């Protein structure tokens, strides 16, 4: 799950071939395919893997709330490692929003609140959305992508760094 992924023009590369079976070297050798967009990233989690991780975090969140020495603890707000930080924002209704980010990334709290705003506007107000079901709304996806791009452009230390 943790291996790096290479994508050329949106097609994931596995060894010498893309996901649709094209030879990468032949693709790169053809001038008609230029300009080429190359992206390095992490392997995308399947829906089942996302559900499993969210379930584990929910359990840890509940245990953290109960074991905290602080009276009325709201649970885990952030888990920090050398390579990432997991930020969690729990709404008053108990919905949790989580973001994995570079440990140096600034502005994650405002990003989480923006994601909640997008969820409220494009999922909860959508008459076809059912609670606790995957969100299938193009406007939600577009606005979420835009919010993530804005946060990413802010850089690891926030605006003005």
From TrEMBL:
<protein>
    <recommendedName>
        <fullName>Trafficking protein particle complex subunit</fullName>
    </recommendedName>
</protein>
<keyword id="KW-0770">Synapse</keyword>
<dbReference type="GO" id="GO:0045211">
    <property type="term" value="C:postsynaptic membrane"/>
</dbReference>
<dbReference type="GO" id="GO:0006888">
    <property type="term" value="P:endoplasmic reticulum to Golgi vesicle-mediated transport"/>
</dbReference>
<dbReference type="GO" id="GO:0000139">
    <property type="term" value="C:Golgi membrane"/>
</dbReference>
<keyword id="KW-0813">Transport</keyword>
<keyword id="KW-1003">Cell membrane</keyword>
<comment type="subunit">
    <text>Component of the multisubunit TRAPP (transport protein particle) complex, which includes at least TRAPPC2, TRAPPC2L, TRAPPC3, TRAPPC3L, TRAPPC4, TRAPPC5, TRAPPC8, TRAPPC9, TRAPPC10, TRAPPC11 and TRAPPC12. Interacts with SDC2.</text>
</comment>
<keyword id="KW-0931">ER-Golgi transport</keyword>
<keyword id="KW-0472">Membrane</keyword>
<dbReference type="InterPro" id="IPR011012">
    <property type="entry name" value="Longin-like_dom_sf"/>
</dbReference>
<keyword id="KW-0628">Postsynaptic cell membrane</keyword>
<dbReference type="GO" id="GO:0030008">
    <property type="term" value="C:TRAPP complex"/>
</dbReference>
<dbReference type="Pfam" id="PF04099">
    <property type="entry name" value="Sybindin"/>
</dbReference>
<comment type="subunit">
    <text>Part of the multisubunit transport protein particle (TRAPP) complex.</text>
</comment>
<dbReference type="InterPro" id="IPR007233">
    <property type="entry name" value="TRAPPC"/>
</dbReference>
<comment type="similarity">
    <text>Belongs to the TRAPP small subunits family. TRAPPC4 subfamily.</text>
</comment>
<keyword id="KW-0333">Golgi apparatus</keyword>
<comment type="function">
    <text>Core component of the TRAPP complexes which has a function of guanine nucleotide exchange factor activity for Rab1 GTPase. Plays a role in vesicular transport from endoplasmic reticulum to Golgi and autophagy. May play a role in dendrite postsynaptic membrane trafficking.</text>
</comment>
<keyword id="KW-0256">Endoplasmic reticulum</keyword>
<dbReference type="GO" id="GO:0031982">
    <property type="term" value="C:vesicle"/>
</dbReference>
<dbReference type="GO" id="GO:0005783">
    <property type="term" value="C:endoplasmic reticulum"/>
</dbReference>
């Amino acid at each position: 799950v943790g291996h790096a992924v290479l994508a050329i023009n949106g097609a994931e590369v596995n060894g010498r071939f893309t996901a649709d079976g094209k030879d990468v070297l032949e693709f790169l050798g053809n001038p008609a395919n230029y300009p080429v967009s190359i992206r390095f990233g992490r392997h995308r989690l399947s829906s089942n893997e996302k559900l499993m991780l969210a379930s584990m975090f929910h359990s840890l969140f509940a245990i953290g709330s109960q074991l905290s020495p602080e009276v009325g603890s709201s649970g885990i707000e952030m888990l920090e490692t050398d390579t990432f930080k997991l930020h969690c924002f729990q709404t008053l209704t108990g919905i949790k929003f989580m973001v994995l980010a570079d440990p140096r990334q600034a502005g994650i709290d405002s990003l989480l609140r923006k994601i909640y705003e997008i969820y409220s506007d494009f999922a909860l107000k959508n008459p076809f959305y059912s609670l606790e079901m995957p969100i299938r709304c193009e406007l939600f996806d577009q606005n979420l992508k835009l919010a993530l791009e804005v946060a990413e452009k802010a850089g690891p230390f926030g605006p003005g760094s």
